Amino acid sequence: YFKEDKGTLIYPLSGIKDIPIKLVEEIINKRPFKDILDFVSRIDFKITTDILSNLIKSSCFERLGLNMKTLIDNIDVIINYGELAKDIGQDESMKPVLTEVDDYDIKEKLSFEKELFGIYLSNHPTTYYKAKTNNVIDVANIDNYFDKEINLIVVVDSFKKIMTKKNDKMGFILGSDETDEVDMTLFPDIFKNCENVSEGNVILVKGRVEKRFDKTQIVVNKLK
User: Fold this and answer.
1) Coil, strand or helix: which one is 216?
2) CA-CA distance, 45 to 25, in Å (whole number)?
């Protein structure tokens, strides 16, 4: 379950993609763990590479000494040790030495969060860029700028491309920042310079705030 603790929201292990509830129950009953090798040795549930990878990329082991990229790069060694330790018991002399590497950057970690939680949990991809860019409006505030041109920084959640009756290409982007999401329309003269945009890109948009079927949208004039 979700729970609140001194102003912090605690996210449940069962909310991580493809983590079985039986495993969650066993983790709760057997924690704390000294490190990831202790974890794979003491958990009876069958730990597959996919399951362990999802736990690692969800930052479940971030306080146990080694960074995320190091654990992922050594995942086969970790799983093999766990299986061996379950057969003959933990032995300090058998513990492998894991090769340490530099960690993933923040963009990669945020992409893991989106994949495994369905949301950006610790931060949002736009936050870094918005802090370095002047005159950018939060998506949640665009209703205050009706019929005005504004600048937005959003991550592309989806990009739909269509052909007009005149056989020209145009597109529709669903974008979001840490405050809300917004629909954006790219007419053919703008679209022709934006075909390489794809889901997950962070984009700077200059556009006019309009209403369509009582819903606020952005008609894009420039995109970077």
Assistant:
1) strand
2) 10
Sign, Cα dihedral of 28, 31, 35, 39 = negative
Q: Which tokens in the block code for residue 76? A: 């086969």
**Tens digit of pLDDT for each residue in 39-60?**
999 999 999 999 999 999 999 9
Structure tokens at 210: 């309009």
DSSP state for residue 23 in the 8-state scheme: H
Going by C-alpha positions, the residue among 156, 218, 223 that lies closest to residue 191 is: 223
Inter-CA distances, 6 with 28, 33, 163, 201, Å:
20, 23, 53, 35
The values of phi and psi at residue 10, to 5°, are -95, 120
Over the range 6-39, which residues count as b (16 or more CB within 10 Å of their CB) and which as e? eeeeeeeeebbeebeeebbeebeeeeebebbbbb
Residues 115, 119: Cα–Cα separation, whole Å = 8
Q: b/e for 66-76, b at 16 or more Cβ within 10 A?
A: bbbbbbbebbe
Residue pair 152/178 in contact (Cβ under 8 Å)? The answer is no
Integer-rounded Cα Rg, in Å, for the chain is 23
- What does pTM read for this prediction? 0.78
Contacts of 91 (CB under 8 A, 6+ apart): 85
